[in-house]
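Journal club side-thread
Mid-discussion, someone asked how the predicted structure for our own chain would compare to the paper's figures. Pasting it here so we can look after the session.
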Amino acid sequence: MRVDFKGASLIRSSFSGATIRFSNLTDLVVQECDVGGLSIDTHDLFFGTLFVNGVDVVPLVDAELNRRFPGRELQNSRTPEGLRESWEAVQEAWAKTVDETPAQLRDARVGTEWSLAQTLRHLILATDAWLVSGVERQEKPFHPIGQIFTGAAEGGFDMSIFREATGFDEILSVRAERQQFVTDCLATVTEAQLEEERANPWDPEGDWQPTVGDCLRVILEEEWAHLRYIRRDLDILRQQGS
């Protein structure tokens, strides 16, 4: 349901148990409200501010996630060494997550969130977009089992190039291949190369055009963010099954 509350004042209203997704909450003010159990989960948190009782909690959340996910603090590194260290850490964390996930949970989902299998397919696509297309500038970068982001079809993206995976083994095989692509790139990239300009794979004519370093940092952000999402959801699924 689409509702426009821009500029509105809502008093003594109840949103208890409601879910708000893909919405604009910028400059929203919440005062004197019962917020027990309020949950905010968005990667966009780190591109702005969020004040709770006058305190910007974004740096606090960022620091706590870095504590929980060692190596995440280097995802925005400006050096090849830092990017390599972050990549190695997140790949080790992903290997542990995949190995510890029982077969019956690989395709299980929490609501509309992606399953483990879908998440791995999305990371294949992210590598194809930001490394194979963005850094290497290949004309046909996408593997057909990549999981495109929500809303791509409505945005005019050609969905005919994609198909479902034949099974989890194919996902792991293609994923391993893409992981090696990134490993090989990071093994040889120099600081000077990190500053080379590239086209935004999703918006070649847009205002923001990344460098090679930006492309690699986006890959790392995708890896760390989706690792958190899937661990969160797997915990929920395990609790539901216990």
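Post-session note: The chain has a mean pLDDT of 94.
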